[in-house]
Amino acid sequence: LKPSPVAVATWNFQNATKMAGTMLYSGASALDAVEKGVMIEESNLKNTTVGNGGAPDRDGNVTLDACIMSPEGNAGSVVYLKEIEHPVSVARKVMEETPHVMLAGEGALQFAIQQGFKKKNLLTEESEKAWKEWLKDKEYKPIINIENHDTIGMLCIDENGDMAGACTTSGLGYKMNGRVGDSPIIGAGLYLDNEVGGAVATGMGEAIMKSLGSFLVVELMRQGKSPQEACEEAVMRTVNKDPNYKDFQIAFVAMNKAGEIGSYCIHKGFTYAKYYEGESTNNPSSSYLN
Ligand code: SD4
After folding, report:
1. N or C: which end of the chain has fewer CB within 10 A?
2. Distance from the alpha carbon of residue 224 to the mean position of ligand 1, in angstroms
3. Which residues form the active site (predicted)?
């Protein structure tokens, strides 16, 4: 029996899950739905961690990371991409139009332009103002407040029971120039296997990359764990290994082929959005710390 279509995303991004969910219930593919779904947040100027309006690095550059995975197990990714509002769509083009998986920086931008994407200034007045404020003290430390973590990772199941996933971000605010996080790394910010399920991550990318967290979650599900158990074990890897785990947040959302969802994080406050059978919800995640 196939599950009904489902769209699930990190944080309370219900506009994104509604977009993806309504597309899925009208017969769209999981791949089209995840792309269009996360594009909502790439264009949302109020979201300062994704796409247009994303916080710049400490030198004032807005640099974007994104990736996408298809039911066939294909993947595309862009890292350190500047001046393009929809990095997820460029990642999809990398997957579909090139022999490669990942393009970076200048080359990614050049490819995007060849593909017809238009350059745009993504540094808004507000994010420039906030950056100039930050420059006064230049204090760089992980910020665990939920307001500062708005990366969108999304997983969808379509009417055929096929799954796709996407992840897109401007990364940690005021990161070093050149820094790339977990979000565009296949297996870290996103992993999907259409036979098993998928996982997406948000939070401190450096910690997620070191455990290749999303890959880990999917492999644990493959071994028979529920999405919830798999997310818990992946978070505990970091908690047990990193003495500084209290200073940062990491969170995973996972969904298996049956449409079962799980989620876990270090610090309380993480939620995930879901669209299922016409109903849109925001769901609190369980956490290691309260
Ligand atoms: C990163 N994981 O670049 C991203 C940041 C994030 O919500 O999730 N922000 O490390």
Report:
1. N
2. 28
3. 151
Specify the residue with its C-alpha closest to ligand 1, atom 7: 149
ipTM attached to this prediction: 0.98
CA distances to 19, 53, 146, 198 from 15, in Å: 6, 17, 18, 21
DSSP string computed for the chain: -PPPPEEEEEBT-HHHHHHHHHHHHTT--HHHHHHHHHHHHHH-TT-TTSSTT----TTS---EEEEEE-TTS-EEEEEEE-S-S-HHHHHHHHHHHSS-SEEEHHHHHHHHHHTTPPP-----HHHHHHHHHHHHH--------GGG---EEEEEE-TTS-EEEEEEE--STTPPTT---STTSBTTTEEEETTTEEEEEEE-HHHHHHHTHHHHHHHHHHTT--HHHHHHHHHHHHHHH-TTGGGS-EEEEEEETT--EEEEEEETT-EEEEEETTEEEEEEPEEEE-
> Is the C-beta atom of 182 inside 6 A of ligand 1?
yes
Is 151 one of the catalytic residues? yes
Q: Is 151 in the pocket of ligand 1 (CB under 6 A)?
A: yes
Residue 40 has pLDDT above 60, yes or no: yes
Mean pLDDT along residues 38-42: 97
pLDDT digits (tens, 9 = 90+) for 201-241: 999 999 999 999 999 999 999 999 999 999 999 999 999 99
* pLDDT over 50 (residue 146): no
Cα 107 to Cα 86, 178, 197: the distances in Å are: 16, 14, 32
- The catalytic residue among 151, 168, 169, 271 is 151
Report the residue among 169, 175, 272 best suited for mutation to probe ligand 1: largest number of ligand atoms under 8 A from its CB: 169
Is the model's pTM score more than 0.90? yes
